[in-house]
Design goal:
Helix content: 40-55%
Number of strands: 17
CATH class of the largest domain: Alpha Beta
Number of helices: 22
CATH topology of the largest domain: Heat Shock Protein 90
Structural class: alpha/beta
Distance between the termini: 61 Å
Length: 731
């Protein structure tokens, strides 16, 4: 937090009579009668424009001060509103008394105009003007006999007065008695009437000015709140009464939707109990810290926004309410969490490297020893008679040696010395070959209650790697999955292509953008505890019985193999429900056998139709346009949603291939919304490296067509483009 600055130092002030002079606690912008810049300043409402531009206000205005400011402003507004309401009540009483008095006067004037000299009305009134008017009317009645000769002029004068007063009661405050008369009484009545109307006009004009000033001050106050970057909200009875635009941006809701919602709807479930407890304690009058942190649940139901809030109690709309100001600290918190995660991953890698180095040395020595243990029993068995009692123990020694050799091979893999050569690998084939292996059949024979499902991908991309090590990885994962459901259940092994265009967080964070071949092994078993997940890939860490069902090296070998192939691994597990291991291997598009299409290329060919590819990744634009060109389309490409909108305005196209997720600027949905404003009915297919999201579905609801999951392939994009272009144009 920036150090507080002193106004008297900034402005070289020596106004010792100023209430803020040399005060460490006084907030100068909230104090009446300050002598800022050698002039006596008004209250906050009078000097808000000057304070907003003042660097003292800008530097010293932290969350706590802001809360205090808003509280003071609120109180000032309450006072102003109460004063205005009191003025309204006074005016209402005046208007009522005036109306009753005028009614009496009108009735008396009617009787006088009809020639009745006996009319008299009570002259008592709290309004001096009404009293004078009544007095004049009574005098008029008394002098009626004397004014017989002037009856016509008097009658006309009274009629004018009656008309003017009638117009005033209808709201015409500009009406005045204009005519001149030789009758002194009429002239006096005219003076009194016009004076009365002028006073009422002045009173109402003053009221309008006060209202306008209050509205202007309120507008300045609102502008100040709306322009700050921190969120501001006011709640009463747990519901939002007021919020600013910054609050709306943080939560993802519009102000219209946010007002009236329960505050707990904005709080992430994991922080709800803590926030609710604080609020309830405050409502009971208990002492609660004004400043704390929690996570907001964004409207999308997924995103968490970390905020620091400062709360205070204020009077708002004739009731006690809570005002809160909140600062978005998400970047700070995520940076801290990422730093912590990096430190953990670094420690994990260093630990695995150290263990791997040790394992490599041990494995080298063990191989020399095991060569004799494995070979000599085989030679001995060849020379021993079939009925020799030594055959069984020697055979046992041989099998034990072979098991030890397998463990040594795992140690070599762990030591990262096993992947010496690489070749183009079809992961579908690796899984299929394991499915046909004796080891697989033997495993299932031990667990007859396990249902296996293998789901290869027809268009699976290739990877560069070692078939031996990949096969070992598949075997370890399937073996662990089956053993996790001893009482029966299901194991599913699936492969798919996936294009990563935004980070994927898991056990290993997938940050590198591109095409990946994904292997998933899911089981409905006992699950793994969060603590065990953190240690599961460490060598010799196992929940099995060492030497019987495992060596503790299986998952360490999986981790080492994935890392050797430049990949990433994720583990998601729920105790009692099952586990999913997801392995990401970088796809290889170079030097791979030609793709076999299930759809004839002739069925996907174009006739020179124009297709615009919108993607922020250059490689994806190149691949897509190359495929489109090969299929007979005129392909063009842009790198952003903004460029796509401008391109469509100038160059209409038959079809749009639109990436849903882009790094900067507008995403696919926003781009599509803008394009259909200019060209309703624009044919479009949506592309994304993730599964269908609500944004994809929203784009389709607005008129977009096929959804194509990345990575692009000739068959997928060819079929989708042809299908969309062949659709009839909506009438």
């Amino acid at each position: 937090m920036a150090e507080k600055i002193k106004c008297w130092d900034i402005f070289q002030c020596r106004e010792e009579k100023c209430p803020a002079y040399r005060s460490e606690k006084t907030l100068c912008w909230l104090v009446e009668g300050t002598r800022c810049r050698h002039e006596i300043q008004e209250d906050f409402l009078g000097k808000v424009d000057l304070c907003i531009e003042c660097e003292v206000f800008a530097v010293n205005m932290d969350l706590a001060a802001m809360g205090a400011s808003f509280k003071a402003i609120s109180e000032q507004f309450v006072e102003a509103r109460n004063a205005l309401e009191e003025r309204d009540r006074e005016l209402e009483n005046i208007s009522l008394e005036m109306a009753l008095g005028l009614s009496e006067v009108f009735e008396a004037l009617k009787q006088i105009s009809s020639g009745d000299p006996m009319v008299r009305i009570p002259e008592d009134s709290s309004l001096e003007l009404i009293s004078k008017l009544k007095e004049l009317v009574n005098q008029t009645a008394e002098n009626l006999g004397e004014m017989v000769d002037l009856s016509h002029e008097f009658a006309m004068g009274l009629a004018e007065h009656f008309d003017v007063l009638h117009r005033v009661t209808k709201g015409d405050l500009e009406a005045r008695v204009r005519g001149d008369s030789d009758v002194e009484l009429l002239e006096s009545l005219k003076k009194v009437t016009n004076q009365m109307i002028g006073s009422v006009h002045e009173e109402i004009s003053e009221r309008k000015q006060v209202t306008a000033d209050l509205r202007t001050s309120e507008e300045k106050y609102r502008t100040l709140i709306e322009n700050i970057q921190d969120g501001v909200y006011i709640i009463r009875d747990s519901r939002i009464l007021f919020a600013n635009e910054a609050f709306a941006r943080m939560t993802g809701y519009s102000l219209k939707d946010a007002i009236g919602m329960e505050f707990q709807k904005f709080v992430a479930p994991e922080d709800l109990s803590m926030v609710a407890e604080r609020y309830n304690r405050r409502q009971k009058g208990e002492s609660v810290e004004n400043e704390y942190e929690f996570r907001i649940l964004h409207k999308d139901g997924i995103t968490r926004v970390y905020v620091n809030i400062h709360t205070d109690v204020i009077t708002y709309k004739d009731g006690v309410a809570t005002i809160g100001t909140m600062k978005n600290i998400t970047e700070k918190r995520l940076a801290e969490m990422e730093k912590q995660e990096l430190e953990i991953r670094l420690q994990r890698s260093e630990k695995m490297e150290a263990i791997g180095t040790l394992a490599g040395g041990v494995a080298h020595d063990l191989n020399n020893i095991l060569s004799g243990i494995v070979t000599y029993p085989e030679l001995l068995l060849m020379d021993l008679p079939e009925d020799s009692p030594l055959r069984k123990p020697i055979f046992t020694i041989q099998k034990s040696g072979e098991k030890a050799a397998a463990i040594v091979q795992d140690l070599l893999t762990l030591a990262r010395r096993g992947v010496a050569s690489r070749e183009v690998v079809d992961l579908n084939r690796i899984v299929t070959e394991y499915e046909r292996s004796p080891e697989y059949r033997m495993l299932l024979s031990f667990y007859p209650g396990v249902e296996m499902e293998i789901r290869p991908a027809d268009d699976l991309l290739y990877i560069m790697g070692s078939p031996v090590h990949l096969s070992k990885t598949v075997m370890n994962l399937v073996s662990n999955a089956v053993e996790a459901i001893p009482d029966g259940g299901k194991v599913c092994v699936s492969m798919e292509n996936r294009y990563i265009d935004s980070p994927v967080k898991g056990f290993d964070h997938v940050k590198k953008e591109g095409d990946y071949v994904v292997l998933s092994v899911a089981d409905s078993g006992v699950g793994i505890s969060p603590q065990d997940v953190k240690q599961i890939f460490e060598p010799f860490y196992t929940k099995k019985v060492m030497g019987r069902s495992g060596t503790g090296l299986g998952m360490a070998v999986v981790w080492g193999t994935v890392k050797d192939h430049g990949g990433f691994i994720d583990v998601q597990s729920i105790e009692g429900k099952g586990t999913v291991f997801t392995l990401y291997f970088p796809a290889n598009r170079e030097d791979v056998p030609g793709e076999k299409l299930t759809v004839a290329i002739e069925d996907c060919r174009g006739n020179g139709e124009s297709v615009l590819v919108v993607d922020d990744v250059e490689e994806q634009r190149t691949i897509a346009t190359a495929i489109l060109s090969k299929l007979g389309y005129r392909g063009a490409a842009v790198s952003s949603g903004e460029d796509a909108v401008e391109y469509i305005k100038k160059n209409p196209v038959d079809l749009l291939v639109l990436d849903m997720i882009m790094g900067t600027g507008m995403d696919g949905l926003e781009t599509f919304r803008e394009i259909i404003k200019w060209k309703p009915g624009q044919k479009t297919i949506i592309a994304s490296g993730f599964a269908e999201t609500w944004r994809v579905k929203e784009a389709q609801r607005l008129g977009a067509g096929e959804y194509v999951k990345k990575p692009y392939s000739l068959e997928k994009i060819g079929v989708a483009v042809r299908k969309e272009l062949d659709k009839p144009v909506p009438s």
